[in-house]
Design goal:
The chain is of the alpha+beta class and 137 residues long. The protein has 4 helices and 9 strands, in the order ββαββββαβαββα. The longest helix has 10 residues, at 69-78. It is globular, with a radius of gyration of 17 Å. Bound molecules: zinc ion (2 copies).
Length: 137
């Protein structure tokens, strides 16, 4: 699960305590949140869906909410898989930057195109992070 698409060239550090990974497998990747070290990963967190106490490494953060596996599964079924957002820009480079910087929480920027009949409005497409990741592995 770790480093399967090599987009992280930077050092892997724990999002909670900042501990830097010595080995790639000493940190866990929490979808929507980032890497956590083993110690922080074992700490209990409260699920925003059902209130259950679960270990941090088992949760998924979806649109800013920490969810246990069960709640995440329920959310995933009803959540939107793709999102579109419009950005105003003069060039494709500018639109690209704006789209990346304004990625919605929990979504990955996958592409951009000019809105039909417009010269400045770009439509950025985002895919939900968990779907994006499962497609890449
Ligand atoms: Zn930590
Ligand atoms: Zn829950």
């Amino acid at each position: 699960m770790l480093g399967h698409h090599g987009k992280r060239a930077e050092t892997v550090a724990c999002r909670v305590c900042g501990a830097v990974a010595e080995k790639a497998d000493s940190h866990h990747y929490v979808t929507g949140f980032g890497y956590v070290c083993r110690r922080c990963g074992l700490q209990p967190v409260v699920c925003d869906g059902c209130g259950a106490k679960v270990r941090r490494m088992t949760v998924t953060v979806l649109r800013g909410r920490t969810l246990c596996l069960n709640c995440y599964r329920v959310e995933r079924e009803k959540g939107e898989k793709r999102l579109f957002k419009e950005h105003l820009a003069d060039s494709v480079e500018e639109a690209f930057t704006a789209a990346l910087e304004n990625s919605p929480e929990g979504y990955v920027f996958v592409g951009i195109r000019l809105k039909p009949s417009s010269k400045q409005v770009w439509v950025a497409e985002y895919e939900r992070e968990d779907i994006f990741l499962s497609r890449c592995s």
